[in-house]
Amino acid sequence: MFDRIAGVYDLMNGVMTAGLHHRWRSRAADLAGASPSKAVLDVATGTGDLAIEMASRGAEVVGMDFAPEMLANARRKAPRIRFEQGDAQALAYEDASFDAATVGFGARNFGDLRLGLAEMARVVKPGGRVVVLEITTPTKPPLSTFFSLWFDRLVPALGRVAGDSDAYTYLPASVKRFPDAPALAALLHELGLRDVGWVLTAGGIIALHHGTKP
Length: 214
Ligand SMILES: C[S@@+](CC[C@H](N)C(=O)[O-])C[C@H]1O[C@@H](n2cnc3c(N)ncnc32)[C@H](O)[C@@H]1O
Description:
Blueprint: H1 2-17, H2 21-32, E1 39-43, H3 49-55, E2 60-65, H4 68-77, E3 82-85, E4 98-104, H5 113-123, E5 124-135, H6 143-162, H7 165-176, H8 181-190, E6 194-201, E7 206-212
Parallel strand pairs: 1-2, 1-4, 2-3, 4-5
Antiparallel strand pairs: 5-7, 6-7
The structure holds S-adenosylmethionine.
């Protein structure tokens, strides 16, 4: 599915979020501590926007994803970043090899969320950070009402215009089945991360979770 939508992916992100996704990625890069001399893994990197944000801060970034067409777009955008194909649920990296691991809008697509997050924690060095940027379902009106209109009606309609109705019907469904912010934080804690917390932004539609490996 992600290979199929690779060509429209960036445009759809821009339209669906009115360009705000760049700001959210910047928050994620802050939380990951992306800076010169830091090695960061961006899991499920897609077309590479979060990897590019972190590389722009001087971090040494590896972006990984299983969809070749998404990776091809990432490489076109940032030929200097190392983009590698692989499975987030069986990362091909040594234990404790990165200062931070991030995932942007990717975790809700993992077949096994616990395993994907455990892999991120495994490859991070002690003291390193795991950061999860994800869409979350707002619970309070008026945003919950707006969100449901936007996500259940507008996004699938935009998907039809973009030529892939299935992918953009899948998107709201994948968000609904994803754990809410406290449950995701509890999972990160269960996986051994400490100082777990989260920041909600965009009126509660976007959650940035972070945890530190002891
Ligand atoms: C919605 S896109 C997000 C892309 C990018 N991180 C961003 O912020 O725009 C989700 C990405 O997760 C990737 N993905 C999903 N499950 C994966 C897995 N098990 N291993 C590697 N990549 C995966 C897909 O190929 C897709 O590129």
